[in-house]
């Protein structure tokens, strides 16, 4: 009886899961496992919890949904909290698994876990997260174009996006220990009440992710106006809000792409439908940037090794975090992030620029606060965008946003500033 251990990471879904698909092809029985990695439950060097309350809640809901889906396929989910490199080999031995199947990650802390695991057990990796499979890039990763536009033009011309795989009918597993998934409180954290001003009542899991995709494309056809509305600030539908589900892998980027193509064939094809694919290419671009530049995306000088003198004044940073800088547009966005775990792309660009260029603070403390607070934190999108904002990333120019003018343009009547005003 050949058994494989399926280690779920940021791929909390059964459909279009390449690791699951390969495990089912190779093995008669599958042992599905999720480890809540202790290193993400700790505190970072700036004193922020690495996983703040919004994302933790979303993650636990996603696991609940995954467990329900596995049960419906006659399997289950083993859940543990601790260090994957210590727990997984033990489980592999206990359940007599020949190999671990999992998604590939692209950043150094995740890669360190992979290395430690490989020393003890056979591991096979699969690219579940990017839309474009790295093997389908028209250049070696060391030759990744530095500028997004050059990357985009090449992949649009030469790369195919693979079709998503359907969820398996059945997943055979032996009798597994029944997992009692913890609540936020069980993990010693305080839960957060939803803020009625928030853009969306986010709920974790592949089921809710599929619902959101259906809502945005098919039920409301918001996709048709995406390019015109995507710079909005208030409400559920100015942009897709797919990011939180993408970050945990509840939704696959390939699935979104395939649905957009179907929409283009069945409803309409316009600049907005193209723009959704365009934005998903940004997401890929930052993943490949991380693959190419390794640890540099986390360093003060970024991928350019630029020497800049970054300041760090805790009181200044705290005012930024609390939405108390005195710049009403920045403050409104920062309060939204603090109270809901979400902020629009327009807001993120402005507050990042403000922290770095107006307040002159180290971009890494801003990135760390986002890491802690964002419900949709994705390591490569976050750090890729932050180095870009700080002028140490892929953009040849320093991108300084005039937050007053941005407020006049994108919050013309002040509704957003009023919504998130000091009250
Ligand atoms: C400083 C800063 C930090 C950011 N941190 C994150 C992060 O941790 N996680 C994250 O998912 N996004 C991050 N973004 C990118 C972007 O702001 C969010 O993806 C977007 O606001 C999420 O809302 P949406 O799903 O409605 O986006 P939509 O506008 O509907 O876009 C659809 C999808 O395209 C992708 N996308 C769109 N814009 C970007 C972008 N600039 N970079 C990468 N992917 C993009 C996302 O996957 C998004 O879900 C950051 C941007 C900035 C400026």
TrEMBL record:
Keyword match Ligase: no
Protein name: Cryptochrome DASH
Tagged with keyword Cell cycle: no
Cofactor(s) the protein needs: (6R)-5,10-methylene-5,6,7,8-tetrahydrofolate; FAD
Annotated positions for site Electron transfer via tryptophanyl radical: 310, 363, 386
Record Gene3D superfamilies: 1.25.40.80, DNA Cyclobutane Dipyrimidine Photolyase, subunit A, domain 3 (1.10.579.10), HUPs (3.40.50.620)
Molecular function terms from GO: deoxyribodipyrimidine photo-lyase activity; DNA binding; FAD binding
Function as written in the Swiss-Prot or TrEMBL entry: May have a photoreceptor function.
Cofactor binding note of this UniProt entry: Binds 1 5,10-methenyltetrahydrofolate (MTHF) per subunit. Binds 1 FAD per subunit.
One Pfam family per UniProt: FAD_binding_7
Homology family: Belongs to the DNA photolyase class-1 family.
All residue ranges annotated as the Photolyase/cryptochrome alpha/beta domain in the record: 2-131
């Amino acid at each position: 009886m050949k058994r494989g251990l399926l280690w779920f990471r940021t791929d909390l879904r059964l459909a279009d899961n390449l690791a699951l698909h390969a495990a089912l092809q190779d093995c008669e029985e599958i042992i599905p496992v999720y480890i809540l990695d202790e290193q993400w439950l700790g505190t970072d060097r700036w004193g922020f919890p690495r996983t703040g309350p919004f994302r933790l809640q979303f993650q636990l809901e996603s696991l609940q949904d995954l467990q329900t889906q596995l049960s419906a396929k006659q399997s289950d989910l083993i859940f543990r909290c601790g260090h994957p490199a210590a727990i997984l080999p033990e489980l592999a031995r206990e359940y007599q698994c020949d190999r671990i199947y999992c998604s590939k990650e692209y950043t150094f802390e995740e890669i360190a876990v992979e290395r430690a695991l490989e020393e003890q057990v056979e591991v096979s990796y699969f690219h579940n997260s990017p839309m474009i499979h790295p093997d389908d890039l028209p250049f070696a990763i060391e030759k990744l174009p530095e500028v997004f536009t050059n990357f985009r033009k090449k992949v649009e011309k030469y790369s195919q996006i693979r079709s998503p795989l359907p969820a398996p009918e059945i997943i055979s597993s032996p009798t597994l220990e029944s997992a009692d998934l913890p609540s936020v409180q069980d993990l010693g954290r305080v839960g957060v009440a939803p803020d009625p001003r928030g853009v969306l009542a986010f709920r974790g899991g592949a089921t809710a992710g599929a619902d959101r995709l259906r809502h945005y494309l098919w039920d409301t056809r918001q996709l048709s106006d995406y390019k015109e509305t995507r710079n909005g600030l208030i409400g559920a539908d100015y942009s897709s809000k797919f990011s939180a589900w993408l970050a945990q892998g509840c939704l696959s980027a390939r699935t979104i792409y395939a649905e957009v193509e179907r929409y283009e064939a069945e409803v309409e094809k316009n600049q907005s439908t193209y723009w959704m694919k365009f934005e998903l290419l940004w997401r890929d671009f930052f993943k490949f940037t991380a693959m190419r530049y390794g640890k540099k995306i986390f360093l003060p000088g970024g991928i350019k090794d630029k020497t800049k003198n970054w300041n760090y004044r805790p009181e200044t940073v705290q005012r930024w975090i609390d939405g108390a800088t005195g710049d009403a547009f920045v403050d409104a966005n920062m309060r939204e992030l603090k109270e809901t775990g979400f902020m629009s792309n327009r807001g993120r660009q402005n507050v990042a620029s403000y922290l770095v260029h107006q307040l002159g603070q180290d971009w890494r403390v801003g990135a760390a606060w986002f890491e802690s607070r964002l419900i949709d934190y994705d390591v490569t999108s976050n750090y890729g965008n932050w180095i870009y904002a700080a002028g140490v990333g892929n953009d040849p120019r320093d991108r300084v946003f005039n937050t007053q003018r941005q407020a006049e343009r994108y919050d013309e009547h002040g509704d957003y500033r009023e919504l998130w005003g000091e009250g």
